[in-house]
Amino acid sequence: MVDKEIEKTIEALLEERREFKPSADFTSQANVREAAIYQRAADDPEAWWESQADRLDWFQKWDKTFEWNAPHHKWFIGGKLNVAHNCLDRHLDSAGDRVAYHWVGEPGDNRSITYSDLHDQVCRLANGLKELGVSKGDRVAIYLPMIPELPAAMLACARIGAAHSVVFGGFSAESLRDRINDAACRVLITADGGYRRGQIIPLKLNADDAVAECESIEKVIVVQRTLEDVNMQEGRDIVYQDLIEAQSSECEAESMDSEDMLYILYTSGTTGKPKGIVHTTGGYLTGVSSTHHLIFDIKPESDVFWCAADIGWVTGHSYIVYGPLANGCTSILYEGAPDWPDKDRWWGIVEEYKATILYTAPTAIRTMMKWGIDYPNKHDLTSLRLLGSVGEPINPEAWIWYQEFIGGGDAPVVDTWWQTETGAIMISALPGLTTLKPGSATIAFPGVEADVLDDKGGLVGKGGGGYLVLKRPTPAMFRTIFGDDERYRKTYFEKFGDEIYFPGDGAKLDDDGYFWLLGRVDDVMNVAGHRISTYEVESALVDHQAVAEAAVVGRKDPKEGETIVAFVTPRAGHEGTDELMIELRQHVAKVIGKLARPHAIIFTDDLPKTRSGKIMRRLLRDIAEGEKPGDVTTLQNAPILDEIREKAKSLGSRDG
Ligand code: WTA
Questions:
Q1: What is the pLDDT confidence band of residue 273, given thresholds at 50, 70 and 90?
Q2: Which residues contact 292 (CB under 8 A, 6 or more apart)?
């Protein structure tokens, strides 16, 4: 982001100056009431994280809390535990009959699954996986809709010590294939299909296409969700239900080392190849359990927690599956779209299950705002006592709307900053303690050392803007990039050295030391809360035979955060027609997934380039934003800019 943009964003953010102190009522019942927690954690972070690791059940206690061989770090070394045991078994005596998930299918079917039910299913599937030859250290790919079998599959892997790699159901066959091959997964767990806006997503069809090019896959387990007729390959494909019915419901949980891999989750980076983010066992579970308990103020006996993300993203991993289950809490799991069959679907679910906490993304909140308050007003939302936001900066207007119309005017709104890499929330209010400022993620979680640096690594101090950094590892932080440790160092530790983690976000500190997140500073876009790299979309475009060159930029959008604008030069013999535009959008959907489809494509004979031939995306971003392009002195082909600007007029102004 260029300075000019940063300044503008800051100005817009600071227009809303209201502050919200926690109410006495909320504080009196909150899980944290003493501000001293921050000092305690800052004085002795290791002791603080130890106290949080004590929230878990360890088969064997660790010998050493923390080892920092920058940029690498380890936590709770020598400790032994099992994640599935912590998420299920240890709750059975006191809370076996408690609902783990109120599951709501999009077509209207539903099931409430208790901790005992889930334990039963997980043990059976774990035994099934073992029978298929999966053992400790293997990788299992999971490509499922939002059905209870998805958390069950993740926990079954965790139970036997296999690492899972969940691939979001919206990704294409090719994306699935690349992720399976990168981690050499042995088994894929998928479904015949899933429901989305009344349509069936053909997951098995995609899975078949993917697996045809995956040598490592030996077996494919298929959940029957839609009961559509799908191809079942003899000897390779097995129906989920058949597999688990034949198994015992007892399966001992494997004793795992604290540093053993729990899962891999792929996320976009600044190159075409997604990064396999590696999370481990003891530290990760400590981080998600602690943050879930303290930030969402969880009372496992009475709360109904709803994180309305998809489990295919880290938010779902940490706050639908591992955090809530480690804490023995009841969650809602909803399969489908917020506007199916109508735009009040979410609010009907909140009312029916008396959800007490809702955690969602600003893009969803802005969409709901646009739909209008008649939809929430049709339902009784008084059960909601706390609201959360994640995925991108929340604009103050959306924050206030969320609190007012969803939270009944008094529910605290916790804006939580974190990433796939950090595993757990890093910057957020503690709702019983922190004075909230709409638009700010407020302050670092206890034990987290966040700061803002300038380009040279100097502290910007209060009132300054620059790069967000984390100055000390925390237990839930990822350990490396799967199969590419060099990329781990280069991506995150080159800018400020091995000891300072650079997440890729810009931020400002206000006079109270609150963090105001300003968006990505690299070539990663944030489209409706999903990370997509410009490079990935460019690679998909140039992969099409009619495309010679492509440059992709994110354009600020009042609803989606950013939308994707592509500048494309067709190959000789091809015209930039409407048909080609449609074809290219379809092509990107096929290569990456629908979420990466460019919103607009502008055809041009050439792209603005420096004399060394580097495409100047910065200028294209200015054009996409409807602004006059910045410094053009280094351009080799300046006249092309006017041509592109003329064509880009159809994009309209930013608020259009
Ligand atoms: C952005 C999602 C501002 C940020 C959990 C980060 C945010 C990226 C916030 C990670 C927030 C996430 N305020 N920006 N509260 N939360 N982001 O890996 O740019 O899908 O680097 O993890 O989302 O996205 P990811």
A1: confident
A2: 298, 318, 319, 323, 324, 326, 327, 329
pLDDT reading at 2 higher than 70? no
| Residue 412, pLDDT above cutoff 90 | yes
Residue located via tokens 């009344």: 198
Closest C-alpha to 220, from 234, 592, 313, 229 = 234
Nearest C-alpha neighbor of 123 from the set 289, 246, 300, 282: 246
For residue 427, which atom of ligand 1 is closest to its CA?
Answer: 15
Ligand 1 mean position, distance from CA 15 (Å): 22
> 382 C-alpha vs ligand 1 centroid, how far in Å?
29
pLDDT at position 45: 98
Residue 300: Cβ within 10 Å count: 16
* Candidate of 531, 532, 533, 595 to mutate for ligand 1, largest count of ligand atoms within 8 Å of Cβ: 531
**Positive/negative CA dihedral, 586, 589, 595, 601:** negative
Q: Could you tell me which CATH class the domain 528-654 is placed in?
A: alpha beta
**pLDDT by residue (tens digit) across 321-366?**
999 999 999 999 999 999 999 999 999 999 999 999 999 999 899 8
Domains of the chain, by residue range, sit at: 13-505, 528-654
List the beta bridge partners of residue 53.
none
DSSP 468: E
Preceding amide of 71 cis, omega within 30:
yes
CATH topology for 13-505? Answer: Rossmann fold (3.40.50)
Calpha distance 79→62 (Å, rounded): 4
β-strand pairing of 413-416 with 357-360: unpaired
Handedness of CA 578, 581, 586, 589 (dihedral sign): negative
**The two domains 13-505 and 528-654 share their CATH topology (first three levels equal):** no
Cβ(501)–Cβ(492) below 8 Å = yes
Ligand 1 binding pocket (C-beta < 6 A) is 267, 313-315, 390-393, 415-420, 441, 503-505, 517, 520, 526, 531
Q: What is the pTM of this model?
A: 0.92
DSSP 434: P
pLDDT at 7: 59
Alpha helices (H) in 372-454, listed in sequence order = 374-377, 396-401
Q: Which atom of ligand 1 is nearest to the CA of 428?
A: 15
pLDDT in tens, 591-614: 999 999 999 999 999 888 877 677
Ligand 1 center to 234 CA (angstroms):
43
Identity (one letter) of the amino acid at 621?
A: R
User: Once rounded to an integer, what is the mean pLDDT over residues 422-449?
Assistant: 98
371 sits in which H/E element: helix 362-371
How confident is residue 560, by pLDDT bands cut at 50, 70 and 90? confident
In the beta sheet, which residues pair with residue 519? Answer: 506
CA separation for the pair 431, 388 (Å, rounded): 10
Confidence label for 8 from pLDDT (cuts 50, 70 and 90) = low
Average of per-residue pLDDT across 611-633? 83
Q: Using the mean position of ligand 1's atoms as its centre, give its distance from the Cα of residue 644 in Å.
A: 32
Q: What are 519-544's pLDDT values in tens digits? A: 888 888 888 888 888 888 998 998 89
